[in-house]
Specification:
Helices cover 32% and strands 28% of the residues. It is of the alpha+beta class. The strands form two sheets. A six-stranded antiparallel sheet has the order 1-2-11-10-7-8. A five-stranded antiparallel sheet has the order 3-4-5-6-9. A hairpin with a 2-residue loop joins strand 7 and strand 8.
Amino acid sequence: MDKGMGLTSFAQSHCGVIRSKNEDAFLALPEQRVWVVADGMGAHSKGDYASSQVIELVKQHLYNKAQSTPLHRTLINAFEDANKQLFHHSQQLMQGKTMGSTAVALVLDGTDFYFIWVGDSRGYLFRNNRLEQQTRDHSRVNVLLDSGVITSAQAASHPLQHEVARAIGVKHDVQVEVVHGTWQTDDIFLLCSDGLTQKLSDFEIEVSLATANLQAAGQALMHSALTRGAGDNVTCILVK
C-alpha cells in the first residue's frame, strides 16, 4: 500500500494458479502520479522480457522528462520507444519471432486523469458506486464488431475473444490510444491485466470496490481471481 500526495494506492501481481512464470509487470509511482500495468504476451517468446522492458522504458522516460513535456505525452513516448526497441530486438536477435506486451497507464496531472494503453490490459473508473471501463480492448473481436461482421451478442462468446489486435513490440509502428477526463474526490481507478477480467465480471469488481478500504478491495479482487483458478497471470492496481 502506497500513500502520497493525498492519494492511496494498492498494487499486486501473481503468476496465477497454473503458470510458473509471471509475464506481467507493473509500476506504481504515487509521488509522480503514474501507474502502469504491462502484460507480456504468453503465447509468444519472452513475454516476461517484453513487459519488463515496457516498465523500464517508462522509468527512463520519466527520469529524462523535459519540464515542458506533458506527463501523459511522456508515457505515450515511452510506449512508442518500447515498441521500437522490442520490435528491433525480435527482428535482430530472435530471427523475427514475435514478442510483445499489452500495457495500460494511468497519469494524474493536476485535476486531469489520462489512461494511455495498447492492447487489452484495462483501465476503469469507479465513481458514485458505478464502475465504467475507460479503455477499449484492442482485440480481434472488437475489430470484427466495429466492422459489422459480428454482433455484440456474438462477441461475448467469440473464440477470438482474448486475441489482441494491437500490442507493443509486434509491429514496426504502434498506435497508442488515450482517454482523458477530470477526477473527483473519492474516485477509484483500476488498472489490470486480463488475468483479472477473465475471471471477474464488471459487477463483481464493482461490489469489491464498494468497500471503504482500498487494501481490502485490492486483496479481495486478487483472491477472487485466484480462487477461481486463474490460468493467466493476474495484476491489479487501485488508486484512490
